[in-house]
Amino acid sequence: MSYSTADRLRTVTLDDVRGAHKMLSGVARTTAMEGSRHLSAQVGAPVLLKCENLQRTGSFKLRGAYVRIAGLLPEERAAGVVAASAGNHAQGVALASSLLGVHSTVFMPKGAPLPKISATREYGAEVRLHGQVVDESLAAAQEYARETGAVFIHPFDHPDIIAGQGTVGLEILEQCPEVRTIVVGVGGGGLAAGIAVAVKSLRPDVRIVGVQAEGAAAYPPSLAAGRPVSLNHPVTMADGIKVGRPGDVPFALVGELVDEVCTVTEDELSAALLLCLERAKLVVEPAGASPVAALLSRPEAFEGPVVAVLSGGNVDPVLMERVLRHGMAAQGRYLAVRLRLTDRPGALASLLGALSVVDANVLDVSHVRTDPRLGLTEAEVELHLETKGPAHCAEVQQALRDAGYTVMG
User: Fold this and answer.
1) Helix, strand or coil for residue 53?
2) Is the CB of residue 293 less than 8 Å from the CB of residue 268?
C-alpha cells in the first residue's frame, strides 16, 4: 500500500483544507480567474477559467505535495522522499522538497519529455530515469522507498494531498461567490475530491462535474461498481489524467460529493486546447483543457456561472504541435490531401495556382517522383493546407477535382 491503514481510514474535512490553505500561504499562488467571452456565449452563462496552469511549477500539484511533505515527522524528513511521475507531480514534489529542505528522488520514464526532466532537476530533485512507462517508474520508486526508508509521496491517494488540492476550491469560492457549477479534470481523483470537500462543505448547492478522457475513464465503471476498477490499457494524449485506477481515498470522496463524471474525446481535447491558446491566450496541457472540452461538447448541460479549472500548462512542445494540428483538423481548419499529377515542368506550379484561387494556405508540400506505384510520367503530391472550416475544405477538394486532379485523401 502507498499509505498506512490509518491514512486509508482518514477522511478529509473542511478544517483539513483550511489548514492546508494556511500552510500554503506564501508558497502557492492564488491563481487568476479569467472570464471567457467565447465560452460564455457557447454556454449562455458566465464562464470563468481558474488558471492553475499559471501556478508555480505549472500545475496545481505543488499544493498537495507541499502539504504532504510539510506534514512529515522530523525523522521522516531526514530519510528523504521519493516519487514517480512523467511531469507535473515530479515538479511539484521537487519544488516542495527544496522549499522544505528535504532531499527528493523522482523516478521518471526514459521517454519523459526533456523539458519536464530538466525542470524537475532544476527544482532540486535527483532524477532517475527508469522504465518506458510511469507504472514501471512507480514500481521502481516504491522499491527505492522500501530499500532506503524514503517516504513515498503518492500523486493523489493520500488525505494530505487531497487537502492541499482542495485549496483550489476555497479560492474559487472567494473569487466567484456566485458560482453554480465547477468543472474539473479527473485522473486519480485528488483534485476533484479536494475541491468537492471544500466547496460542498460551504456551498452544497454548487454542482461539481468531473471530466475524464474517453480512453482513460476509470471512474464511470468504478462508480457503477461501487469500488475502484482498473483499466488495462488507458490511452489518451492527456497524460495528466491518464490514470488506470482511481485512488482509494479520493474515490470515496468523489463518489459521495461529485455530482457527475463525464468523458470527452481526443478531438474535443484538441479543440479545447486550441481554443485556450487562440481565444484565452493561455498555454494549457490536454488534461488542463478537459473541462473546456466538456463545455464545448455539452454547452447546454452546465448552469452558470461556471468555473472551469485549467489544472496545468506543462505541455511538451512536440506534443503541442501535434495536438494543435489535430485540433485544427477537428475544426475543419486543416486539410491533408494526396493526389497524382503528370510529371512535367510547371505541373506543381499549376496545382498551387489552383489552390490559390480558392484561398487555401499551403503549409507543407511533399513531392514524390520515384515510387514503384507510380507510372513513368506520374508524380504523387501530399499537401497540408490551412483552411477556414468544413465548408472551405469541401470547396478546396471540389476545386481540385474540377481542375482535373484525382484527390485520394
Assistant:
1) helix
2) yes
pLDDT per residue as tens digits for the range 208-241: 999 999 999 999 999 999 999 999 888 898 888 9
**Residues contacting residue 275 through CB under 8 Å, at least 6 positions apart:** 38, 39, 289, 292, 296
Residue pair 327/238 in contact (Cβ under 8 Å)? The answer is no
Which contacts qualify for 349-353: CB closer than 8 Å, 24 or more apart? 350/403, 351/381, 351/403, 351/405
> Do the bridges between strand 151-152 and strand 181-185 make them parallel or antiparallel, or are there none, so unpaired?
unpaired
CA 404 to centroid of chain Cα atoms = 44
Domains of the chain: 5-60+160-327 (3.40.50.1100), 61-156 (3.40.50.1100), 332-407 (3.30.70.260)
Q: Is the peptide bond before 305 cis (omega within 30 degrees of 0)?
A: yes
Q: Tell me: the pLDDT tens digits for 46-77?
A: 999 999 999 999 999 999 999 999 999 999 99
Q: Active-site residues: which are they?
A: 61, 311
Q: Rg of the chain over CA atoms, in angstroms?
A: 24
